[in-house]
Each structure stands twice: as structure tokens, then as C-alpha cells.
Design brief:
WH_DNA-bd_sf (chains A, B), 3 strands, Tscrpt_reg_PadR_N (chains A, B), alpha+beta, homodimer, PadR family transcriptional regulator (chains A, B), Arc Repressor Mutant, subunit A, DNA-binding
Chain lengths: 107, 107
DNA sequence: GCACGGTACCACGCAATGCACAGTAGTGGA
DNA sequence: TCCACTACTGTGCATTGCGTGGTACCGTGC
């Protein structure tokens, strides 16, 4: 099974999850996701997802200068974003439970 | 979150899971998946997935006449299919655990 | 000074896949 | 006769993750 397909529709949730605790910029979100275990996430996927969530009105954004490189575009969850996070988490948990039962959970 | 996107790459596993226990034909697999909790699976998705798995050499197929309607095309797991099921299950479990930790498991 | 690697972001186009929709066809009941 | 249910197929679309390449800034080592 190609792990990249598993991310479909879940990367949104993953990004919201890491932003939920602390604002972050693209490159940072990428690192945090990989550290969390999503080793194969592509950078373009993360930037794309951030833009998508921003355009959907779930994130706010502000630019901060850095002395270690180019400017950083920070993203932060707003209220709709937090709500979406809660909803998506519920959807995910329910879906994951269904799938685990289907394949026969052996935990 | 659109639940349909969650199925991406997982429908294969779900179909393998229901066929693992008993051979089935498309319409039947569809009903079994919906009964298992995947309420929104489209019929075309299931037929398409069955064809894809068959073309990938993971399923065998045979036709059986029915007295309640048209002929039924049964599918069955073969050895590669069973192996794929085991691999995909591992991938899924690992992925699901990672995601659950990310969103903060509240079980 | 300059090449190089790490940081940071973006645009373009592709590929996979679930789905809607339409079509074909058999069976049986109102 | 019409309709609902069963059963399968084909076409085309939308979403979305990713590969690739490009821009640009910074510090280090030569």
C-alpha cells in the first residue's frame, strides 16, 4: 500500500494538529510532521495544504523576519480552524475505529 | 472533513478485509462494507477497486448464476492478496497510531 | 569573492483514486 | 405495464499529495 495515498484528506487534520499548539511556518510545520512520524510528507504538500486551509478561512497568517534565512510566513489557527480541528478529529477517530475493526484489531 | 477523501488508499484494504473471510461479488462486498460502518462508499468505487485488485493479481474471479437477478462475479483472495492484506494492515495500524498520537488520543 | 548547504517559499503539472452519472440487463411484485 | 431491486460496466470529473524546478536569503569554508 502506498503510504502517500493514506494522507489523502488527513494531511489537513495533521497540519491543524501541529498548529493547534503553536503557530508555525511552512518549513517548521514540515519538520514537526516528520518528527511526529509522517516521515514521507513532501514539502510541497505541506505548503499546498497551508495555502488551502488559509484560503478556506481556517488560518490567519503573518510574516516574521528571520536572521537565519528568508522571511517566515507564520500560520495560526483561528476559531473556525479550531472548530474544524475538533470536527475532523471526531471524523478521523470514528473512521479509524471502523477500519481497525474491519481489519481485525490485534492490539 | 470530507469522509470520501479518507478512503483514499484505504478502500483497497477494506475490500481485502471483507474478502479475507469469504468470497464475495461486488454488490455483496458493497453491502458488507456499508454494514461495517463505511456507510458512504459508492458502488462504482467498490467495483472499480475490485477490478483494480484483480488486475494487480491479488484476486481470482469466477461467475455464478443467480436466480434473484443477473450473474454474480465472485472474487476471492489468492496468496499474493493475503500477503498484501497483511502488509497493508501493518501499514494502516502504524499510520493510524501516528495520527492518533498527533491529534491527541482521547480514548 | 564564491561555491555550497541549509533555510524558506512558490508554481506547474502529473498520478492516483473515489465518485456521480448513465447505461445495460435480469427478476419479480403491484 | 411500470417500478424496484439486484448486478455490473464505462466515462469523465474533482480532490489532493507529490516531483521537479525555480527564487532567494544566510553563514561557513576555501
Amino acid at each position: 500500500m502506498d503510504p502517500s495515498q493514506l494522507l489523502k484528506g488527513v494531511l489537513d487534520l495533521a497540519v491543524l494538529a501541529v498548529l493547534r499548539e503553536e503557530d508555525g511556518y511552512g518549513y517548521d510545520v514540515l519538520r514537526r510532521l516528520r518528527k511526529a512520524g509522517l516521515d514521507d510528507v513532501g514539502d510541497a504538500s505541506v505548503y499546498g495544504t497551508l495555502r488551502r486551509l488559509y484560503n478556506a478561512g481556517l488560518l490567519t497568517s503573518y510574516v516574521v523576519a528571520s536572521d537565519e534565512g528568508p522571511n517566515r510566513k507564520y500560520y495560526a489557527l483561528n476559531e473556525p480552524g479550531r472548530q474544524r480541528f475538533r470536527e475532523s478529529t471526531d471524523t478521523w477517530n470514528s473512521f479509524a475505529r471502523t477500519m481497525s475493526e474491519l481489519v481485525g484489531e490485534t492490539r
